[in-house]
Each structure stands twice: as structure tokens, then as C-alpha cells.
Amino acid sequence: MQNDDDPFHHDIPFFRARLSPHRSLGRGGLVVTMVLVGAVSFAAGLLFWSIGAWPVAGFLGLDVALIYLAFRLNARAARVIEEVSVSATEIHISRTAANGRSQSWRVNPFFARVLAERDEERGIERLTLSTREVSVDLGTFLPPAERTRFGRALSAAVAQARRGGVTATEA
Q: Rounded distance, CA 17 to CA 21, Å?
């Protein structure tokens, strides 16, 4: 009889990954950057205004607004989250898009294949979990090196699931 607290119970995931895009500029960095851009544009606008080229000041203000919009769109795109879990009986993938819309897939690990399109210099360019019915691209927002590491870990987890979720050293 199997105990539900047993870590090798078939329904308990033994591999979990949460993927999200990396952004080096946080909210505080955005504020500092926009203050600096705004100050430089304001100073340049005053200079152009003082020499009689007042229309340039308006375009400098438009530049600040467009830079802010670009940063906001970039931050919105960073809200994508992919979660992958593998147990002996299923692979569960859930994706939350930047707009908040969620999708979810559940597949049997015995029929799943991890497919990778590789570039010799960069690593994995495209990583797909595929069955007859479903094909899901994973980590499209990751850089190739991180996608390569994730692809190796996922392939190992799928192979482990096919062995029943217990490796030879755990048995």
C-alpha cells in the first residue's frame, strides 16, 4: 500500500520548474532612468526654447513619453510565467501570458518527447514538448544557454518518469 506522504508516490511531482523572463531593470531602476531621461530632455528643451527653436522642446517631451511607453511594454511582457511539473503519471504545463490569460496542458510522459532545435554555437534555439495531440514550445523568452540547461533537466525528468519516477539510486 502506498502512503500519500511517500515522496515516490506516482502522483507527486518530482520535477518542478517555474520559468519567467529576466529583466535587469526593476521598478526603482525605471523611476531613476525616467527621472534622468526627463531631466536631460527638459534641460535640452529649455536650451532650444531659449534660442527660439521651441518646437524641438515638444519633440523632446514626445521622446520621453515614447521611452516610458517602451519600458512599460517591456515590463508587461515580463509577466509571462510558465510552470512545468513532471510526475510518474503526467507532465503538467501551465502558461500565464502577459495579458493574464492562462493555458494548461497535461500529457502522459510515456508519449511525450522533448524536441530541441540546436545551434552549435548558441545552444538550443527552440524547445518543444510534443505528443501526438499536443505540441508546446517552452521557454521561448529564455536565452539559449538557459533554454539548453532547462531542456537537459526536462529531458532527464521525462526519462525518469518513464522509469516510474524513481531513479536507480533511489530504488
A: 13
Is 16 within the bounds of a domain? no
Q: Summarize pLDDT for 29-67 with one digit per residue, the tens.
A: 889 999 999 999 999 999 999 998 888 988 998 999 999
- Residue pair 160/171 in contact (Cβ under 8 Å)? The answer is no
The answer for residues whose C-beta is within 8 angstroms of residue 72's C-beta and 6 or more apart is: none
Q: Are 99 and 83 in contact (CB under 8 A)?
A: no
For residue 122, the one-letter residue type is R
What's the half-sphere exposure (Cβ side, CA atoms, 13 Å) at 56?
Answer: 13
Q: Would 136 be classed as within a structural domain? A: yes
42 is a domain residue: yes
Q: In this structure, are residues 106 and 90 in contact, taking their beta carbons and an 8 Å threshold?
A: yes
Band of residue 169 on the pLDDT scale cut at 50, 70, 90: very low
